[in-house]
Amino acid sequence: MVLRKDGKSGGWCRGIANSGGFTLNELIVVVAVIALLALVRLPALGYHKATGRGFGCLNNLRQLTLGWLMYAEDNQGRVVPNLDGQSILTGTNAWVRGSMDYYSNNPDNTNTLNLVDARYTPLGPYTKRPELYRCPEDQSGVRVGGRFYPRVRSYSMSSAMGRQGPDFWLPTPRYRTFQKLSDIVRPAPGQCWVLMDEHPDSINDPCFALAMVEPDNLAPAVIVDYPGSYHQGAVGISFADGHMEFHRWTDRRTMPAMRFGGLLPLNVPSPNNRDVLWLSQRTTSKAR
Q1: 250-266: buried (b, 16+ CB within 10 Å) or exposed (e) per residue?
Q2: Rounded to two decimals, what is the model's pTM?
Q3: % of the chain beyond a pLDDT of 70
């Protein structure tokens, strides 16, 4: 239904009233159809939290990705920079600043200015709200002075997006990185991911590192950074066309238990892990 802008009441609802409304039989049919549609949708949505926190994660991703697209629109199609952790820690412009860990003496864990202040992040003016950067399911935090503080960021950006310079993990130049929206053609924008929640014991800098694999050779697969699995084994993930979704992982090695303590060892061999292939196919493609 399209809302009218002329301030007048009526339209769709008034049309129903004038026609005499629904009969009892029609109402029964409508309720039955709605119930049937709900049953059809439930298997796909069954692993989302009944509280709606999972959908809160998707809303966060929607807002962040919208900001990412708006930034590109205002910058001749160039996507926001996305650099490695060392560059971010030394103050280089990137989509956000700072690195997550569990040390009480690391101010990045609780500093929301790193997320939204234009002095530190070019994306901040487009998002504005620091709560968007934390998945509602994320229980991670740090203790400072005996008090528990939630960490401020749950999401990381694909290392193929806006990466300046070579990427050791993909690796480039064998695999392409995307500097402009117009570069995103293989995979297509609807199949090329931008942001996702990362495992709380894996997340550090804002760049999600992935070592690419090809379908005909999964034996060398490794997990560099672990994706999130907050949503009953699923990750919240957004794509370059602006849509977002949940994806459920199939390999237990992709979903180590959440300890909310020390960081996981990274760059772990995971031969024949099809989750790594799924991500690879939605991250980038070989340069030609």
Answers
A1: ebebbbbebeeeebbee
A2: 0.81
A3: 78
